[in-house]
Amino acid sequence: MATTTVHLLRHGEVHNPDGVLYGRIAGYRLSDRGQEMARRVAEHLVGAGRDVVAVVASPLQRAQETAAPVAQGFGVATATDERLIEAGNSFEGTTIGSRPGQLAHPRYWKLLWNPLRPSWGESYADQVVRMRAAVEDARRAYDGHEVVLVSHQLPIWATRLAMTGSRLAHDPRRRECTLASLTSLRFDDGRFTSLHYSEPVADLLPGANPVAGA
């Protein structure tokens, strides 16, 4: 039986002092902590002796920077796949993410008519279509091995919901996809069999309070 694992890795923390909803805007790099997250994820995977033979990333800078130490650790080049990109969002470039009270302004009401789609950006269903295609292509290309796909929170979470047969409409506050987390999809003879979620850098997450010496 051939076992293939596709790891969906969310990028590390982004340098964003102004609290902009950056979405697909170019030029948003990892913060210093984000760079450390990327290094630590690479060390985690290499140290565990994972059979990673390819690293593929979203074209956005934060994903490419997260992928770099992982690719280096396994001695491969980072490939790029546009299908792994962040979800499209009509609020891109605003500070609504950090100041949601702005949604009360009438100019935004036309975007809020259907939060289940959602109406303010790329639909969950469309994200799943492109992400699952990227996952399937990676599974086929690296059958019997492991591959890391570096993407973004919402596309990864929507993919997880779809793979487990859950409804795509959800409460964003309940997403289990922290910075630099791994959502690992296992396939046996091409058939999806299990999902494992892990947070290799939990102690580096904003607000984390690790026990001294742990």
Automatic annotation (TrEMBL):
CDD domains given in the database record: HP_PGM_like
Keywords, in A-Z order: Hydrolase
Enzyme Commission (EC) number: 3.1.3.3
Molecular functions per Gene Ontology: phosphatase activity
Top-tier EC class: hydrolase
GO terms for cellular component: cytoplasm
The protein, known as: Phosphoserine phosphatase 1
Name of the encoding gene: pspA_2
